[in-house]
DNA sequence: TTATAATATAATACT
DNA sequence: AGTATTATATTATT
């Protein structure tokens, strides 16, 4: 078997592989840009223009299509990688943001504990886990809150001073920063 | 495949001088599985066993490595796609979470507006944009808040009833849900 | 090693 | 059925 196979391979004729020159490649590429599929008419035209057998034009197109497929895979891969990077970075920013929001809610809760003793609010927002384990509550709208509270509040204007003290206590300065919310 | 070529391939294998047969492929593949790099000693051994010139073994390994590379690219692509999916889903969840936290902070702020009239806290946390435009402030620690406030609060125990009313007003029930935070 | 030409086979579509 | 075209894999050269 060994000598047989050896001879088999030695008897193979040498392939005369001729590279296409730059001009030929250029024309083929520009043709490929317009249509990935080689119409018979186009094949003959290219063969005539380039002095190449139509058969070779077909082969070139086949190989070019195979190459094109791999190129696309790599391009898509890079695009995907970019998407992932931005997604991860945005995720990180959101994590920081939620951390900050939880911290502020904790501060406010401390304030309420201080004001109200034992009956502190249990903010579900400050749970460590991401999954919101609490059922949705019907939340009163801005207008509802305002209309309800305005009448209620008149009786408690004497508290203003104490609240200002509290603001300072928890580190939230009032009316002195350039980040006023629009609401 | 037409019957002519089929017959040629099946019953006249000797005419197919170029392709390696199944047995040869099998041995080469198992060898490639163990090491992607072809040591000279291994090359001679395979050449002897398969009746193939060492040169052909080298070529086969080169081509096999190229194919292996492309295979890996496709595998990596799929893995990346999976990563992106999970990242996007986690991002979405975080967006919901921040939205909820902002809402709660707004509620609390409404409460403070109601209590304190014009001097509402400007929560930087409730800005719509993601970028935190505000400089960091030194925040007082938990212990600081407690120690400062405990002494301060004793004078205001009369406010308890009003705060309980406020809790109900903004929809945050106190002490009646199963989501107590650990702090 | 990379790129690519050339060949071989399998799959598909059209006649 | 046969014929043609294409996609894919493989071999080989530069």
Descriptive overview:
The structure is a homodimer of 183-residue chains. Chain A is an all-alpha fold and 183 residues long. The first copy, chain A, has a domain at 20-89: Homeodomain-like (Arc Repressor Mutant, subunit A). In chain A, 64% of the residues lie in helices and 0% in strands. The model of chain A is unreliable at 1-15, 118-163 and 168-183 (pLDDT under 50). Chains A and B meet through helix 1, helix 4, helix 5 and helix 6 of A and helix 4, helix 5 and helix 6 of B. Chain A binds a DNA duplex (15 and 14 nucleotides) through helix 4.
Could you say which structural class the secondary elements and strand pairing of chain A correspond to?
mainly alpha
Mind summarizing the main beta sheet of chain A? none
DSSP helical segment count of chain A: 6
Quaternary organisation of the protein chains? homodimer
Please write the CATH class name of the domain at 20-89 in chain A.
Mainly Alpha
Largest interface: A-B, 97 and 95 residues
Give me the Rg of chain A, rounded. Answer: 37 Å
The rough form of chain A would be described as rod-shaped
């Amino acid at each position: 078997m060994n000598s047989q196979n050896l001879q088999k391979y030695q008897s193979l004729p040498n392939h005369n592989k001729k590279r296409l020159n730059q001009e030929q490649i250029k024309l083929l590429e520009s043709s490929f840009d317009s249509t990935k599929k080689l119409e018979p008419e186009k094949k003959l035209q290219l063969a005539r223009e380039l002095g190449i057998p139509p058969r070779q034009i077909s082969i070139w197109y086949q190989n070019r299509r195979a190459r094109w497929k791999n190129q696309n895979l790599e391009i898509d891969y890079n695009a995907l990688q970019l998407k992932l990077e931005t997604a991860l970075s945005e995720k990180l920013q959101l994590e920081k943001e939620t951390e900050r929001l939880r911290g502020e809610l904790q501060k406010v809760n401390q304030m309420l504990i201080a004001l109200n003793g034992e009956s502190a609010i249990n903010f579900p927002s400050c749970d460590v886990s991401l999954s919101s384990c609490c059922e949705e509550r019907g939340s009163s709208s801005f207008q509802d809150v305002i209309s309800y509270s305005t009448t209620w509040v008149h009786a408690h204007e004497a508290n203003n001073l104490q609240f200002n003290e509290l603001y300072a206590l928890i580190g939230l300065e009032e009316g002195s920063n350039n980040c006023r919310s629009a609401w």
